[in-house]
Amino acid sequence: MMPNGYEMCWLDYKKHCDVDKNELSKWFSYICLFDPTDEFQVVKEELAIFVTDFLGFRPRFFKVFPKQGRHVLIGKLSDLPVEVNLDEQLSEEGFVLKYVKKQDAEFVIITGISAAGVLYGTFEFINRVRVGEDLRKLNVVSNPKIKLRFLNHWDNLDGTIERGYAGKSIFFSNNKILLNQRTKDYTRLIASIGINSVVINNVNVRHAALKLIEPAYLKRLSQLAQLFQRYGIKLFLSVSFASPIHLGGLDTADPLDERVKKWWKEKVKQIYDYIPNFGGFLIKADSEFNPGPHMYGRTQADGANMLAEALEPFGGLVIWRAFVYNCQQDWRDYKIDRAKAAYDIFKPLDGQFADNVAIQIKYGPMDFQIREPVSPLFGGMEKTNQILELQITQEYTGQQIHLCYLGTMWKEILDFDTFSKGNNSFVKRIIDGTLYGRKNNGIAGVANIGDDPNWTSHDLAQANLWTFGKLAWDPDEDVKKIVEEWIKLTFGDDELVVRNISYMLLNSREVYESYTTPFGLGWMVNPGHHYGPNPEGYEYSHWGTYHRANWEAIGVDRTSRGTGFTLQYHEPWRSIYDDIHKCPEELLLFFHRVPYNFKMKNGKTLLQNIYDLHFEGVEKVQEFIKLWDELEGKIDAVRFSRVKKKLQLQLEHAIEWRDVINTYFYRRTGIKDEKGRKIYP
C-alpha cells in the first residue's frame, strides 16, 4: 500500500501546462507500435499511463501502418516502415523525435537503435507534449554524452539510509529486499531522466549486507535486476573487499593470494548465474575503517585489478572509489593534508588499472562541502577511466530541510578547465571520454530519495534529482533551462510560479553558503550527523578537517609554501591558487591562511565580509518565504504547506547559523561589526 499523499514527482501526468487537449487527442487516437519482439512493453505502459491521465482516454496500439490522419509511430530505427533522415549519427542509447508527413498521413516518430533509446525518447516526447511544444516542429536527435550514469544509494538492509533525509529505504526492510509498486515507480522515475546504472546498497558494507552476494539474496536480486533491465538500467552492488574472509572462510583478502583470486572468480560466476546482466561492483576500500589492499601492503590497482579480472569475462565493471585517506590524522601535525590524499595515492598508479576499472572521484578533495575546489585528480589520471561523484542527498548542504539547489554547483564543476591538455580540458570532457579517449567513464550521484510520499521530503529537492539526470545525459545543458522545465512539469507553467521558483532555486546555493561557511571554509558543523553550526566541531578530531582559527587569522595554508596542495594542479591554476591576491575569493580560506583584517576586492575586510554575508543570508531566506507566499492558490495546498514549513525551518536554522558563527568570530577577535548589528558577546 502506498503512503497517503503518494506522488510521482515530475511524472504526475495529471499536472500539465496550458495545452489544447482536444487537438492533442487527435495524435494519440492511433499509436502505431512496431514491436516484433515485445521489447517495448514498458513504452506501451508509459504511453498508456500518460494518455489516460493527461488526455482522459485509454489509447489503442496497432501494428498496421496507417495511410491517413495524425499518428504517433514508435519502433526501432531498423523496423520502421518510414525512412527517417538523421542530421547526426545515433548512438546505442540515443533517440530520435521527428515529425514526418507522408501523403495524407502525419507522423510523430519516436525511434532509436535500442529499446532503451526508444524508452528515453518516449519520456522526452511526453515531456514536450506536456509543456505544449508544437509537434509539427519536432526534429530531435539526442545522444547521451556520458556512458555510465549512476545513482549510488547508501541504503542499509535494516531499512536505514546513511545520509538519508527522506524516510527509509525503498529497497530494504528488516534485512529483506523489497519488490513492490514503489520499486517499479522508482525505476520509471530514474529511467525518465536517463539513469542507466544503480548501486542499491551502502558503500560501507557491513552486517547483513555482506551476504548480498550469497544465494539467499541473489534470487530476489535477480528479480530486481530484471525489472531494472526492462528500463535500460543495470544493477550494481557495493561489496566488502574482505568478503573472502567474511563469506569464504579464508584467513586473508590479499588480492595477490591465489586462493583469494579463485574465491572471487567463483563468486562472480555465481552472481552472473543468477543475474546475467549484472553490472559489477562498487568498492570503498582502505577508508573510514573499511578493509582494502593497503592492509596487505598492496596498491589500490592490485585490489581493483583482481576484481576486474574476475568480472571481465562477463562484461562487468569495478567502480573503485578514490575516497582513500589516513582518517587517523593528528590535528597537531601541520604537514599532513587530507586534501592531498586522493592525488598522492592514485596519481602514481595512473595507467596501471584494468580497462574495466573506473576510479570514482568525489568532486572536491575533501567531502561534499558547499564550496571546494575541483579535485586535481581529474587532471592527473589521463590513462584511467574516471567517474565524477556528486552528492544529490544534502549531507552538508541543508539535509533537505534547507532549500539548496545543487545544479549550479555541478555545472561549475563540469565546466571546470583542468588544463591537463591545454585549454578546454574540462571535467565534462574527461568523464564523457573525449579528452583522454577512455571508454568506461561516467558520473555518479549519491541519491536523495527515501520512502517519504514525495520521495525527497523537501518538494523542491526533487529538482536536484531531476537536474542530476539531465546533466548526466548532457553536461553542456543550460541549468536555467533544466530548472524551468522541471518547474513546468511539476507545478505547471503559470508565469509567477516559474519565475519565483526559478529565482529561489538558482540563488539558493549561494544563500546557503552565505549564512553557513563562505569563502571555502567548510566543516563548521556538529560531528556525526553534520547538521547545524558548530565552529570547532571537527577542529581537534582525527578527520583532517581543520580551519585552525585563532585571534588573528583563519584557514589552512595549502599553497606551495604550506602543505603543497596547489602543486597538484596544472598551470595556470597552480599559480592562481598559490597567490592570495589571485585566488578566487570564494575559495580563499580553502587555500590560504588569512588575517581577519585582510582587505578583499570589495574593499571590506575578511571578517566584515563574514559578518555581512551571514546577515544577508538570513535576509535572503526571508525573501524566499515572501516569494513562496505569493504562490498560494497557484500550487496545491498540500505541497504549498509542506514547502512553507521547510522554509520556516530554514529561516529559524539560518538565524542560528548567523548568530553562532558571527559570535564565534567576535569572541575570537574582539572586532565589532561596522554596522552595529546584534552579535552576542
Outline of this structure?
The protein is 34% helix and 12% strand. It has 681 residues and is an alpha/beta fold.
Explain how this protein is built.
The chain is an alpha/beta fold. It has 3 domains: 9-142, Chitobiase/beta-hexosaminidase domain 2-like (Chitobiase, domain 2), CATH 3.30.379; 160-477, TIM Barrel, CATH 3.20.20; 482-556 and 593-681, Alpha-d-glucuronidase, C-terminal Domain, CATH 3.90.1330. It is 34% helix and 12% strand. The chain contains 18 helices and 18 strands. It has helices at 21-28, 41-55, 115-130, 181-191, 215-230, 243-246, 258-274, 300-311, 341-346, 407-414, 427-431, 462-473, 479-491, 495-515, 573-578, 588-591, 606-629, 637-669, and strands spanning 31-34, 61-62, 69-76, 95-102, 105-112, 139-142, 148-152, 172-173, 176-177, 197-199, 234-238, 280-283, 317-321, 357-362, 385-391, 442-446, 553-554, 594-595. An 8-stranded parallel beta barrel has the order 7-10-11-12-13-14-15-16. Strands 2-1-3-5-4-6 form a 6-stranded mixed sheet. A two-stranded antiparallel ribbon has the order 8-9. Strand 10, helix 5 (215-230) and strand 11 (234-238) form a beta-alpha-beta unit. Helix 12 (462-473) packs across helix 13. It is globular. The N and C termini lie far apart (54 Å). The model has no long low-confidence stretch (mean pLDDT 96). It catalyses: Hydrolysis of (1->2)-alpha-D-(4-O-methyl)glucuronosyl links in the main chain of hardwood xylans. One of its GO terms (biological process) is glucuronoxylan catabolic process. GO terms for molecular function: alpha-glucuronidase activity; xylan alpha-1,2-glucuronosidase activity.
